[in-house]
Design goal:
Number of helices: 5
Strand content: under 5%
Shape: elongated
Radius of gyration: 16 Å
Largest sheet: none
Order of helices and strands: HHHHH
Distance between the termini: 18 Å
Structural class: mainly alpha
């Protein structure tokens, strides 16, 4: 997203071709990318994780995204509905891509798969 925003700013990409990256300040994009990269690193480091360990990684990324979404340094910009859904999907898919059965994980806590982030999510 940050790269698309830079391309729009330099004229290398037309705003209408950039999608959702256009209205967001680079600070929001960079902070979001950093939070997601840290989450990916943490998920990659999990080896035969307990449910608590997996939920801990989810909690940390969601709390980081909450802080980013509410940070005034982004000029009032935050995540809209589409981005919120994409972030939830990204968290789910990242876990699944690293061998976590998200459906079974959430079911063991009496949750639907779609409720994976709900306990901590403000955005």
């Amino acid at each position: 997203m940050a790269e698309r925003a830079r391309k729009v700013a330099t004229g290398a990409l037309a705003p209408e071709s950039a999608g959702a990256a256009v209205p967001y300040p680079e600070s929001l994009l960079l902070a979001t990318d950093a939070a997601l990269e840290a989450f990916e690193d943490e998920v990659r480091a999990l080896r035969d994780p307990s449910d608590d360990a997996v939920f801990g990684t989810v909690e940390r990324v969601v709390l980081a995204l909450n802080a980013i979404d509410g940070d005034d340094r982004h000029g009032g910009a935050g995540f809209c509905t589409l981005e919120r859904e994409q972030l939830c999907d990204y968290i789910d898919l990242t876990l699944g891509g690293h061998g976590v059965d998200v459906t079974a994980l959430t079911a063991r806590r009496g949750l639907d798969r779609s409720e994976l982030t709900d306990r901590w999510r403000d955005w």
